[in-house]
Amino acid sequence: IEKLTKVILPDYRSYMAAFDNQTTLEECKELGIRCPDIWREKDVQLVLKQNRTCPEPLSFVLKPRADIGGARGLGIFDDEKSFKSLQKNMLHYGPYCIQEYIPGGAETMRTVNLLFDENGKVVAHFATKKIRQWPNTGGISVLSESIHALDLVDFVMPFFEKWHWQGMAEVEIKIDARDKKPKLIEINPRFCGYILLSPPWRPER
């Protein structure tokens, strides 16, 4: 692709570490980046049985392992019926992973778009705070505001440093309602759809 365009892209192994949602979280765990736990299906089944009589049932997120985008295939569940329905729907999207649900409303979601040069240095970044989403239970942004968030850039940098990242990436982060700390939800090896709205920000380093 370098023969045809000047666009900088990560190499294949780096790209796949972000493209596969389960691999991303496993990598982040090893690097000490706070993120949701990955659950095995048999363990989830046990919890769902306990949820039948639990006053505060534990919720999970089921999502495609691939970076499909647009919140397609994503679902939140805390009972067996919903889980089976989401599994059936996942036939359209391929392999999936089950993650711990991080509590918090739409306003707790953040995105950080990053651009790296060929030496792995951040040359531009753009962050947003979600205000409204559709569907309300979890989905794409319908209203967001831009924010300046160098702390979130620093929060995710260990992943990109390990993988010698080049080119663009979008990081989705949620501020956990339980401890008010950021948790990395996923990394998409691309820009998001609203990147055209971003101002020409540069890191203050």
In short, what is this structure?
With 205 residues, the protein is an alpha+beta fold. It contains five helices and nine strands.
Radius of gyration: 17 Å
Could you report the average pLDDT, rounded to the nearest whole number?
A: 90
Estimated helix fraction? 25-40%
Broad shape: globular
Q: What is the number of helical segments per DSSP (H or I, 4+ residues)?
A: 5
Ranges where pLDDT stays below 50 over 5 or more residues in a row are none
The largest sheet, given as strand count, sense and whether it forms a barrel, is: 5 strands, antiparallel
Tell me the β content.
25-35%
Head-to-tail CA distance between termini: 32 Å
| Strand element count | 9
The ordered H/E elements are: HHEHEEHEEEEHEE
Order of strands, widest sheet: 7-6-5-8-9
Labels describing this entry:
four-stranded antiparallel β-sheet; 26% helix; 205 residues; five-stranded antiparallel β-sheet; alpha+beta
Topology:
Blueprint: H1 12-19, H2 21-31, E1 38-39, H3 41-51, E2 60-64, E3 75-77, H4 80-89, E4 96-100, E5 109-116, E6 122-134, E7 140-147, H5 150-162, E8 167-175, E9 182-188
Antiparallel strand pairs: 1-4, 2-3, 2-4, 5-6, 5-8, 6-7, 8-9
Write up this protein:
The model has no long low-confidence stretch (mean pLDDT 90). 26% of the residues lie in helices and 29% in strands. It is globular, with a radius of gyration of 17 Å. The two termini are 32 Å apart. The protein has helices spanning 12-19, 21-31, 41-51, 80-89, 150-162; strands at 38-39, 60-64, 75-77, 96-100, 109-116, 122-134, 140-147, 167-175, 182-188. By secondary structure, the chain is an alpha+beta fold. It has a five-stranded antiparallel β-sheet with strand order 7-6-5-8-9, with helices on one face.
